[in-house]
Amino acid sequence: MKIVQKIAVASFLLVLAGCDDEDHADQLGGGPGSANPTDVTASGNGFCGPQGGAESLGQASFDSGSTIAKIDTDGNPAEQGLDATWQAGTSGTVNGQAVNSAQYAYVAMDASTMRNDGVSLGDWATVHNNATGQSTFARVEDRGPPGGTGEISQAAATAVGIQYLPSSATVGNPSVTVQAFAGTSAIEGDCPPAVASNP
Amino acid sequence: MNTKILNTCAAGALLLTALSSQARNIPSPDGRFAIRAESAIELLDSTGQPVLTLINNTAGDTKVEVAWSPDSRRLAIVETSGRGSDIVAAWRDGDVWHKTIEMDADQAGMIQQAQREFGGRLVSERRTLGSWISGNAVKVHGEMTFTGGRKCAFAYTLEFGHGPIHLSRAGYEDGAVVGTQFQIL
Q1: CA–CA separation, A43 and A190 (whole Å)
Q2: ipTM of the complex model
Q3: Domain membership flag for residue A21
Q4: CATH code at A127?
Q5: Per-residue confidence at B130, pLDDT binned at 50, 70, 90?
């Protein structure tokens, strides 16, 4: 009986830690079917917008409605020690690295909303400043706690004219609307190719 | 509780690659079904054929925990990723399996209360499954972290058999499980 009870409540944990990038260096590269489907490939300084523009994203599968913006500084090494909740990593990656909040416009979503709406890491999103009308494209690159909708990266905040302190607190209570587009992670950004300059 | 902790790479497609094939499947107590956790989490029948895809993409997950009910008719899965977790559950009605997700709204009251008590905004939370307290209810334990770094533990009961049920875009029957008896510890 004890064995049956033990089996009945058996839990199975996968702790994904200690990943050695060198062992899997040949498996980097994002998009569906790749070794790491959450990894986005990007060139230039940011994600820019989706190739094909907004039309390529179709209808939003998630709409936050008007919500207070919160700044997610994860992935930005400069925030260590400034933001008490800072984390070195983000759920998603870009070019195999954590997504730097200061460089890439990204949004965080809570895990169950993502699951329910079919949104995956790397999918495209938009952030709209409800006060100023400014908008930017972003990607979903971090998962937050319940009610975490409205968390945007420093780059996304800057792009829509939202000011924030080094502690990640916003100036005022800026209102944003975040939309996410399920199944769009494979759409590449339209950043111009990096141009090398000779000394 | 029989718990296994397994180390592997964080890349979703590489989940469990270091594990034996036997370790990848978590059988139901009656042996008729199993959960296979790889780049997706699937419910399998006794022949190993997929019956239902519970989670179609585990990319970004840092931990996945599965608990079968003693009668093998229900199961709960906690996914942890980044600063949040979610609970996917399934139940068998006759020969048909259904899947659902616990809605965030369940925890809203507890979170608001905790934010008032501890000050600051909730910035991360994680949950783990406890024991089944009946055939249709399992205990959930967790921890919340707020701005400023303050933490608090919590617990509640996840119950099956509630409604109304609404089919989500991703095919989950929302409302079939709810959290009850929330406690901030």
Answers
A1: 9
A2: 0.75
A3: no
A4: 2.40.40.10
A5: very high
Q: CA nearest B113: which of A147, A116, A150?
A: A147
Q: What does pTM read for this prediction?
A: 0.78
For chain B, say whether A97 makes contact (Cβ under 8 Å).
no
The H helix count followed by the E strand count for chain A is: 3, 11
CA angle A180–A35–A97, rounded 5-degree value = 65
The residue among B36, B123, B136 with the most chain A CBs within 10 A of its CB, best to mutate, is B123
Residues B23-54 pLDDT 10s: 478 999 999 999 998 889 999 999 999 999 99
Task: Please list, in sequence order, all residues whose beta carbon lies within 8 angstroms of the beta carbon of residue A121, skipping any fewer than 6 positions away.
Answer: A38, A91, A92, A140, A141, A143, A185, B59, B60
Please check whether residue A59 touches B, CB under 8 A: no
**What's the number of domains chain A is made of?**
1
CA distance A190 to A125: 15
Tokens of residue A14, six digits = 């996968």
Can you give the residue range of the structural domain that contains A130?
60-180
Q: Where are the domains of chain B?
A: 12-184
When the pLDDT of each residue in chain B is averaged and rounded to a whole number, the result is: 83
Grade residue B4 by pLDDT with cuts at 50, 70 and 90.
very low
Pair of tokens at residue A4: 């049956």
- Whether B176 shows a pLDDT value over 60: the answer reads yes
Helix (H) or strand (E) holding A114: helix A111-117
Residues B11-30, buried b or exposed e (16+ Cβ, 10 A)?
bbbbbbeebeeeebebbbbe
Q: Are A70 and B121 in contact (CB under 8 A)?
A: yes
Number of helices and strands in chain B (H, E): 2, 15
Between chain A and chain B, how many beta carbons pairs sit less than 8 Å apart?
208
Question: What is d(CA B122, CA B107) in angstroms, rounded to the nearest whole number?
Answer: 12
Contact A147 B168 (CB under 8 A): no
pLDDT in tens, A67-95: 999 998 989 998 888 887 788 888 888 88
Tell me the average pLDDT across B58-80: 92
Kindly report, residue by residue over B17-29, the tens digit of the pLDDT.
223 334 478 999 9
Contact predicate B24/B8, CB 8 Å: no
